[in-house]
C-alpha cells in the first residue's frame, strides 16, 4: 500500500506498482502524470479500510502522514510517523543514549533574541556558508 504524492513519482516506482498491483492512493492533483490504467488505484475509504487488515503503508512524501492522521489517527503507523518526524521529540527520547550531544529547542520568535555567545557548539564550520547575524 502506498500514498503517492505526484511531485515525487519515478518511472521505476510506477513500474513496480503496476507489476505488483500494490494498492495506490493518489494524493494531490495528478493532471496528466498518471496515465497508466494498470495501477491499482483506490479511493481513500477503501485504501484505509485495507490498512486495518494489518497491511503496511508506505508514502513517497511526508504529506502522506497528514492523510494517515485524518483516516487512522490512532494507528501505530500514524503515531510513530508523527513522532519520528518531530526532530525535537526524537532528540528528547534519545538524549540518554547520547549524553554529550547538545541540543536546544527554539521557537522561530526566539531566534532574533538568541545570544550567539550562549551556543555551545559551532553551527557552521565553513565560513562561506556562514549566515550574517
Structural features:
133 residues, alpha/beta, four-stranded parallel β-sheet, 37% helix, 10% strand, elongated, disordered C terminus
Explain what you see.
The model is unreliable at 124-133 (pLDDT under 50). It is built from 6 helices and 4 strands, in the order βαββαβαααα. It has a 4-stranded parallel beta sheet with strand order 3-2-1-4, with helices on one face. It has 2 domains: 2-88, no CATH class; 95-129, no CATH class. The longest helix is centred in the N-terminal third of the chain and has 10 residues, at 11-20. Strand 1, helix 1 (11-20) and strand 2 form a beta-alpha-beta unit. It is an alpha/beta fold and 133 residues long. The protein has helices at residues 11-20, 44-51, 63-71, 76-85, 87-94, 108-111; strands at residues 2-5, 23-27, 40-41, 58-59.
What are the SSEs and their pairings?
Layout: E1 2-5, H1 11-20, E2 23-27, E3 40-41, H2 44-51, E4 58-59, H3 63-71, H4 76-85, H5 87-94, H6 108-111
Judged by helices, strands and strand pairing, the structural class is: alpha/beta
The proportion of residues in beta strands is 5-15%
**Biggest sheet: strands, sense, closure?**
4 strands, parallel
Mind telling me the C-alpha Rg? 21 Å
Q: What is the chain-wise order of helices and strands?
A: EHEEHEHHHH
List segments where confidence is low: pLDDT < 50 over at least 5 consecutive residues: 124-133
Mean pLDDT: 76
* C-alpha geometry: elongated
Number of helical segments with 4 or more residues: 6
Can you count the beta strands?
4
Which strand order do you get reading across the main beta sheet?
3-2-1-4
What is the distance, rounded to the nearest whole angstrom, between the alpha carbons of the first and last residues?
46 Å
